[in-house]
């Protein structure tokens, strides 16, 4: 406050550069793209090199219709744009490129706050949600919610409402600019008040069913894994029993002692080791079984019963 009083006591600056961003005075040449002097008949405080000096209180920020709508305000009917500037949206840029004559055309209309009024939300009639031209509801501020409607922040509510034949619209709460374009930001759905309880109950039931199906799916998968593990263990035991080395009956302790002394004196014999290795090979055991089968003939029923106990790779 003391700083402003001190500035007011000083005379008007004499250099044009001093008026830029000055807290008390402004020149039209220093106004930004979306700024303007209002009213047009604003009092002139003086002149600097032939240019009128205005009070900084007369400088106002202008916005387009869409920007004012984000602040829950609409331009009154019949208002004339206070200022026209060149728009830089993708739609305006493409329109200028399509027609070379309109490249320097100022196509964006700006309005001041004095030309707008508060947004009046529409009223829902017969269970139908009032929508905009894009089929959704602008809900930039809570006061923009249509009368007789509520906002439900439940995922996939539109799919459930379609099944129940209930009108439902997405709530647009803003726009996100990325990738060179503006993308709408949604936050829940707007439905009529009379369908609120029905939709919430149906959504909770659907979530319970989804959770139940997911639980059954997990249990089925776990049971399948356990079955696979047990089958593998059973196959492993069968293979061990079928191809395990047949241990000879243990000899008397006296023979064991004699063998140990003989082994210490002369070392292990290579013939016994080769014999044990030959017996341990499954192929050699299969050959022995074939020789035994040739000696003893079996009936077809016995052969069929034995074949049922074999693995696929053993039948080849």
Largest sheet: 4 strands, mixed
Q: Kindly report the spatial arrangement of strands forming the biggest sheet.
A: 10-12-13-11
Instruction: Note the beta-strand portion.
Output: 15-25%
Give the SSE order as H and E letters: HEEEEEHEEHEEEEHEEHHHHHH
* Shape field: elongated
Q: Bin the helical content.
A: 40-55%
What is the β-strand count?
Answer: 13
Amino-to-carboxy terminus distance? 103 Å
Low-confidence stretches: 247-275
Q: What would you report as the Rg, rounded to the nearest angstrom?
A: 46 Å
- Average residue-wise pLDDT: 83
Given the helix and strand composition, which structural class is it?
Answer: alpha+beta
Q: How many H/I helices?
A: 10
What features would you describe in this structure?
The structure is a single chain. The protein is of the alpha+beta class. It contains ten helices and 13 strands. The model is unreliable at 247-275 (pLDDT under 50).
Short key terms for the protein model shown above:
single chain, 316 residues, alpha+beta, 4-stranded mixed sheet, 3-stranded antiparallel sheet, 10 helices, elongated
Write the layout of secondary structure elements.
Elements: H1 2-9, E1 25-26, E2 35-37, E3 46-48, E4 51-55, E5 59-61, H2 65-70, E6 73-75, E7 83-85, H3 90-98, E8 108-110, E9 116-118, E10 137-138, E11 149-152, H4 157-163, E12 169-178, E13 181-192, H5 196-243, H6 253-266, H7 270-280, H8 282-295, H9 300-308, H10 312-315
Parallel strand pairs: 10-12
Antiparallel strand pairs: 1-4, 2-5, 3-4, 6-9, 7-8, 11-13, 12-13
